C-alpha cells in the first residue's frame, strides 16, 4: 500500500515539475519580449506582463509549495498557512490582470481617439499596483483569522489532547472552505469572470458595429484598425476562456465539499483540477505565440538573437501600432 502511494506521489511530483519547466521559461519569454520590443510597450501588454509575473510565480513558488503540501509534513499551523496562501494571492492577481486587460480592450474600441490620453502609462502602472495590493489582501485574509485554527483547537480539546499543536500540512486542513467558497469564489472569482464575459461581448458588439459603419478612428484605415482589434480581442478572450476552464472545476469541487459534506469526491478528480489550475500558467505563452503576431515576431527575434547567434538589427527599431 505504501509503495502504491509513493508511486502516485512520484507521478504527481513529476507532472508538477513538468508544468513548472514549461511555465517558468515560457512566461519569462513573454516578459522578455515586452521588454525588448517597442511594439509591445502599451497598456495591454503591461497588464499581460503582470499576468506573466503571476504565472512565473506559480511555476517557481506555488508548484514547489504544492509538492510540499502533497507530501504533508508535520508543521505548526501558521507555517502551513503561509505555504497555502501564495496560490490564493497569485490566482486573484491573474483574475484582476485579466479584468484590467478586458477593460483596456473595451476602451480601445469605445474611445479610440481619446484612448491614449485616457490610458496613460502612469495610470496603467497605478492599476497594476492596485491589482497586486488587492490580491495580497484577498489572498492573505486567512492569515488575518479566517482559517481553521479554532476548529482544529476545538477538535483537539474534544479529543482530550494537550500535546503541542502540530498538524499535517494540507491545504484543506488550514484554509476554511467557507472562505474559499463564500469569499474567494463568490466574491473575487465568479463576479469578475462574469463581468469580463459581459465586457468581451460588448467589445465584439462594438467592433461589429464599427466594421459595418466604417466610422472614422485614430487609424487612417478604420477597417484595418477594427480588424486588428477584433483579432487581438479574440486572442485575449481565449486566454480568459482557458483561465475559467482551468480554475472553475476546482472551485466547483470546493462548493461540493462545503455544501455536501457527505459527498465523496474521487481524489483523482481533485488532482486533475489541481493540474488544470497549475497548467493554466503554462498556456498563455502558447496562445500569444500562435495568436498574436507581435509576440510571435518578438519570440523569434529573441530566439535568433540570443540562442541562434543571429542578431536582428531591426529588433530595436520596431514601431508600435495600436491594438495588436
Automatic annotation (TrEMBL):
Example GO molecular function: G protein-coupled adenosine receptor activity
GO cellular component terms, A-Z: dendrite; plasma membrane; synapse
Main subcellular location: membrane
Domain G-protein coupled receptors family 1 profile: residue ranges: 26-288
Keywords: Cell membrane, Disulfide bond, G-protein coupled receptor, Glycoprotein, Lipoprotein, Membrane, Palmitate, Receptor, Transducer, Transmembrane, Transmembrane helix
Pfam family, one: 7tm_1
Stretches that traverse the bilayer: 12-33, 45-69, 81-103, 124-144, 185-207, 236-259, 271-290
Coiled-coil annotated spans: none
Classification via SUPFAM superfamilies: Family A G protein-coupled receptor-like
Membrane topology: Multi-pass membrane protein
Compartments it resides in: Cell membrane
Protein family according to the UniProt entry: Belongs to the G-protein coupled receptor 1 family.
Function summary: Receptor for adenosine. The activity of this receptor is mediated by G proteins which inhibit adenylyl cyclase.
Name the record gives this protein: Adenosine receptor A1
Organism this protein belongs to: Falco tinnunculus (Common kestrel)
Lineage: Eukaryota, Metazoa, Chordata, Craniata, Vertebrata
